[in-house]
Predict the 3D structure of the following.
Amino acid sequence: MKYIVTTSYRPTKEMVELARTLAKEYGVKYVNRRHVSEKLKNKEIDFYYVIDRNLMLSIKWNNEEFFFHQGIAKIRMENIFHGEKDYLIESVQPTNDSIIYDATCGLASEALLLANFARKVVATEGSIHIFRIVQWGLANYKSNVDWINKAMKKIELKFSDYKEFIRKEKDETFDVVYCDPMFENPIYESNSINPLRGFAVYDSLNLKDIEEMLRIAKKRVVIKTYQKDKLYINLKHMFDKEYVSRKSGVVYGVINK
Ligand SMILES: C[S@@+](CC[C@H](N)C(=O)[O-])C[C@H]1O[C@@H](n2cnc3c(N)ncnc32)[C@H](O)[C@@H]1O
């Protein structure tokens, strides 16, 4: 995919400098914002990175935008505060001394929730574009919610394919391993996932991967899947416990060690 780095309109000197530095780092061109729509129209680029007035980084194309935000994590945590059960927390069971590995970071919404209860979350993301936006967000986003600012600092995000990562880690490095691959049958009502679909890695999880995940976990592996997907049908027999959303068909399957 072809892309450039730019700023929002009427940038400050600082925004331009930052955008130029990122363009150099990514090995692409910096382009003045005034010329970007023309480049999109001529199909010279597929999308562009933007540094905005708050020095936050996002990706834009046509009328769409991909950026780091606290949205879904904040709502889920509010529900937990109001006494509702959250299947991620129920299945992973993070405690204040646990180290969790989130193999598929995405927008880090679930990594944030886990980090709020755990000591540390190590996360991997295999898409360079998703990684850059989320890494930038975790380092620079200022939330008006205290627990989110604290949780962001507990996430160590790596640009890595989890299939390679899990094969290099030592036995029982993490208390729990969590994996939420892209569903084979997308749930388009899932607004939090929609913006990243075009950039995501669509790998299928196999039994050898699960064996490796169990090897590097002390307590359990939790897989998020969808009742309509082949992955669920293939793994169902391995789950010691399932947390199933009757409304959406999303399953958090627990494999204990
Ligand atoms: C469904 S999303 C995860 C959403 C995440 N749980 C959240 O709360 O935002 C799946 C993510 O895993 C990433 N992914 C898929 N296969 C991967 C792989 N082999 N290695 C690393 N990341 C991968 C995708 O690029 C995507 O960002």
Q: What stands out?
A: The mean pLDDT is 96. Residues 71-256 form a domain with the Rossmann fold fold (CATH 3.40.50.150).
